[in-house]
Amino acid sequence: MVKKIAVIGPESTGKSELCQHLARHYDTEWVPEYARFYLDRLDRDYEQHDLKSIAEGQLAWEDEKAEYANNFLICDTNLIVIKIWSDHKYGSTDAWIEEQLSERHYDFYLLNNIDIPWTPDPQREHPQMRKHFFEVYKEYLEKYELPYAIVSGIEGDRKKCAVDAVERFFNQQGNAGTSLPDGQTGPK
């Protein structure tokens, strides 16, 4: 059974790079952030109804990649991010997204810290609000008692922090036994 790991956090915290690293490390699949693909092809400003389309696309990509994943499926974002963004920007979240949030299961979350510099990008909107959003993500994870670890550090230290957190969590779950790269053990 594939274990799903969602990498979430504020804008410009290295989520995509970390997902790619984890996928290489565990020789598995990762799911890119569908919102980037969707917004790059949109010829207008996005609106609240677009968030449902983004959520549907994200889940479709996730389901497709899960078929080819090896032990883990690394998800660059999930519906928590879309919900928090929708609540912030529009004051509410589409009922379908809320329903999917309650039905979709992720085994572990990596919450990226804001300890790396902001990198400008046309799709990024709030460089001054990274601390706020970090706290909102953390509060959400704690409110719903979702298993998570905070990922901090620069470059190699950040990657090591993430791998160590994944190993620690899954080994504590009693899922050790499958041989992983670098002689590590992890879930079956």
Give an overview in words.
- The protein is 47% helix and 14% strand.
- With 188 residues, the protein is α/β, with parallel strands linked by helices.
- The protein is globular, with a radius of gyration of 16 Å.
- α6 links the parallel β4 (108-112) and β5 (148-151).
- A five-stranded parallel sheet has the order 2-3-1-4-5, sandwiched between helices.
- α1 packs across α7 (156-172), α3 packs antiparallel against α4 (79-90) and α4 (79-90) packs antiparallel against α5.
- The chain has seven helices and seven strands; from the N terminus they run βαβααβααβαβαββ.
- The protein has helices spanning 15-25, 34-40, 48-66, 79-90, 95-103, 130-143, 156-172; strands spanning 3-8, 29-31, 72-76, 108-112, 148-151, 178-179, 185-186.
- The relative contact order is 0.20.
In short:
With 188 residues, the protein is of the alpha/beta class. It has seven helices and seven strands, in the order βαβααβααβαβαββ. The longest helix has 19 residues, at 48-66.
List the topology elements.
Elements: E1 3-8, H1 15-25, E2 29-31, H2 34-40, H3 48-66, E3 72-76, H4 79-90, H5 95-103, E4 108-112, H6 130-143, E5 148-151, H7 156-172, E6 178-179, E7 185-186
Task: Please describe the structure with a list of short key phrases separated by commas or semicolons.
188 residues, alpha/beta, five-stranded parallel beta sheet, two-stranded antiparallel sheet, 7 helices, 7 strands, 14% strand, disordered C terminus
The structure class reads alpha/beta
Find the count of extended strands (DSSP E, 2+ residues): 7
Largest sheet: 5 strands, parallel
Oligomeric composition of the shown chains: single chain
Strand order of the largest sheet: 2-3-1-4-5
Write down the secondary-structure element order: EHEHHEHHEHEHEE
- Overall helicity: 40-55%
Number of helices: 7
Strand content: 5-15%
What is the average of the pLDDT values? 89
Our measurement of the CA-to-CA distance between the termini, rounded to an integer number of angstroms, reads 7 Å
Rounded Rg: 16 Å
